[in-house]
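Hey team,

Filing this mostly as a record. A colleague (T.K.) asked me to run one chain through the structure pipeline before their review meeting, and I want the input and output archived in the tracker in case anyone asks later how it was produced. No errors, nothing strange. Just documentation.

Input sequence:
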Amino acid sequence: MKIVSLFSGAGGLDLGLIQAGNKVIWANDIDKDAVATYKENIGEHIICDDIGNIDVDDIPKSDVVVGGFPCQGFSQANMLRVLDDDRNQLYKFFYKVIKSKQPSFFIAENVKGILSIGKGAAIEQIIADFEEAGYTVAVHLVNMADYGVPQTRQRVIIIGQRKDLGEEMLFQFPAPAYAKDGDNRWISIKQAIDHFPDPDLENNVLNHIYSAYKVVYRNFTGHRETNPDKPSPTILARGNGKGGVCAIPHYNGKRRLTIRESASVQTFPEDFYFVGNMNSCYRQIGNAVPVRFARKLGEELIRLEKEIEE
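Output structure:
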């Protein structure tokens, strides 16, 4: 399917969709380093600009629109309509694109917390807005570890299907293939990255450098001990680029994960090169959708395309 990608970042979601056989025809992000990374690895079809400067009419029509919108203004959802909150300009742009372009499907990704904001009022209003735009909507909370990603990363995936395609949701959300226990267990962080050489020794591995930020275990995010026999904790990002590097401790307890190790936990290919300083690269990786999971979504789009054509 032909896909328009909003808030693309370094392109984890887009790469997985492309690997499945889809085509991203237009993409956008405001982060110059993320755009440079995207161009280096995926293609020149991405535009680096504030999405507020983009005219919706200049965005091509597509079969699918994808993207993850920030949620700064959703805390007021129990008092204000989401579309009326000035802090939700990016959400409003996503809504405006799907309402104007009317793609067959859309896929939106967000953090787990969006389900609890305003005691559920935010997600209810988001669903109502998308339904008003002409879509049947399904909301899924997923743990990426269930899909072969070596990381316990929980995210909300919102699927929209244009109502004229039928009342029944045609998009069959990918079934989990891995579990915490049983025959097909979650992939551990050690299984995913133990083959990399010591980054302190000479090597030719791309982006295999790490933050010197000292490992001190405290009982909060980014400072908890990493268990080599379990999936990694969520790979983090500071979305505004402030506050320094945010990197998970390596399970050896001596250092932080390298940029490359973090990218592998996010299931980026090992030849995927990240552009920018260390802080920027970590941020790009932490903000991304794991490629392996994105490919599962892309495979379902390919199946749907064939079904619709028939």
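Quick notes for T.K.: The helical segments are 12-19, 32-41, 89-101, 121-132, 189-193, 259-265, 278-287, 291-309. The first helix runs from residue 12 to 19.
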